[in-house]
Amino acid sequence: MLEVFLDHRYDVVRRRSRFRLGKKQDRLHLVEGLLVALLDIDEVIQVIRTSDDAATAKERLMSVFDLSQLQAEYILEMQLRRLTRFSRIELEKEQETLRREIEELEAILADDDLLKKVVGDELADVAKTYGTPRRTVLLESAGTTVTAASAPLEVPDDPCFALMSSTGLLARTSNAEEVGTGGGRANHDVIVSAVRTTARGEIGVLTSAGRVLRLGVLDLPAIPPSANEPNLQGGLPLTEVLQLGAGERALALCTLTTDGPGLALGTRAGVVKRVNPEVLGRDEWEVVRLNDGDEVVGAVELRTGAEELCFITSDAQLLHFSATNVRPQGRSGGGMAGVRLAAGQRVVWFGALDLEAAPEAVVVTASGSSTALPGTEPGAVKVTDLTEYPAKGRATGGVRCHRFLKGEDALVFAWAGPAPARGAAASGAPVDLPAATGRRDGSGVPGTQPLAACAGPLASYVRVSA
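Below the sequence we write its predicted structure tokens.
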């Protein structure tokens, strides 16, 4: 069946190429005739005006300018004002374009390998545009955990990406190619962190306790290539491979490298810290000294060191400033003032944004009551372009990013990152987000269900993180 289908596609492309080739050759023939006529437009007009009828004019044009019958008829049928308005430069550009396209079409018809490549590229584009996610997720490793010690030596150390979903599921890609961008939403498709690594390499997991935990990539199930956006429905729960403390949460993945700009951390109390890249010969180590009652609410591995660091607080204040304003420290450092908090307030979200790689960033906020149990009310959700919020200096209060309605007194969720944003509930189910309002201090619209996580498109994020 596949061979029959491919034979059909080859035949379609051949016939289409022959048809297009004929059309472009005909057009090139006419353009060349126009170029000849434009060389002496006054003489062309004189020949036409002094002829007794159209047939005589056609014969005289063919003989005087050495034109074909089609070229002469085309010139005669054109209105005089169109003929005189033709730009010689535009016609020469069109002539060059037609010749190049004719060469490409002739190459396709003459070379079967090139024909197969054209068919393959077209089918790949169709899969990316119209492909739909599988309802059953296939994993190359069948979802089983493989320890490095028991892994066969035949497993190649190929480049890949390690992924973590908003629900704490882990997986890796089969290769380092760009992920798909087609298909609709699916459960566990909000990928909050992705790092480039190798199949037999090791990565780090940043936690809310300010720790880095070492993790072997080979332990993670592999996701086969797909034209759709990836989801980690069959991924490995992080708790099965790492031991977290009570109340400790995994925030992000990072590479274990001793070069680069290092890590950026933001705490609940508004402290920011840039950590010098340092990898120890142990399974875990601390990267920030936390005061009693404080915890890390956001952590990210910097790519350039010039990203924008962003805080969003519970009283709907947003502050972003350049990472160059934060002096890197060693592991034992306690950081420095990042955002000024009002009494009784806390940081809801912290992260870093690379505005050069992804300039279309948005801010997602959800307001609610501070007395309600977390995750029990959807709140009022608002999406705003980050460009609405001016940058301020480090250790300032920032600008207001959400207006509370009656019964609301705090942000229950916040996130900032590349557009378009993808929302998910605590279960990993997709959550629809409203369109951007363009009002930085406006109120939100009622949400469909409580937001637990957001992320930008993985394709652009992976390219940035690479």
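The chain has eight helices and 25 strands.
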